[in-house]
Amino acid sequence: MKFGLIVPSSNTTMEAELWKMASGWATIHTARMRLRKITIEELEEMEKEMLEQALCLADAKVRVIGYGCTSGSLFKGKDHGQELEQRITEKTGIPAVATAQAVIEALRELQIQKICVATPYVREINDLERRFLEQNEINVLQMKGMNLIDNREIGSKDSNVTYELAKQAYIPGAQGIFISCTNLRTIEIIDRLEKELGVTVISSNTATFWAMLMKAGAQKKLEGFGKLLF
Known about the structure:
The chain has about 230 residues and is of the alpha/beta class.
């Protein structure tokens, strides 16, 4: 099974994490859009490259195309992710998944309405993310950011940094934790967080891959990456 993935040019994490989750039964084929800093201006410019890159992936006859950027699929508001999916599918004829919309669908699947959010972003992007989640009827109890704007710096962070950030973001009463950003390393620490904190943990990458599996009709249980995928 072949999955297509479009990521920001500076993303060094998502492709590798999806390959690990695919674990020999599927392949990941990746295209890139230029982005170095997570700002509204660069996210807007990056989106302009989306359809050209989607067409390139369509040439490889992938089953699903993922738009692998969290902030890039939510900064325009509630329906941003759905609109990106629709545009990709209309252009290519291939089902599409946008990360931010995948997160909403994953939280609904798990019946989680109250969450804590861990992000690497600056306040401006965090505020847009909170707005997006709450517009989609997800109650954000607490959000912790790292105040990073350079996407290459985000990708350089060890998963232990993500682990500590998620623990700082969590407060009792939350039904789950969402670790945001496809360039943050997460899949090594999700099981550990779920066992230690007793709540479900999803990340941008696990939610995106889960939604891609759903769109592809793939009945796969993946052990070791959290409750969502197993």
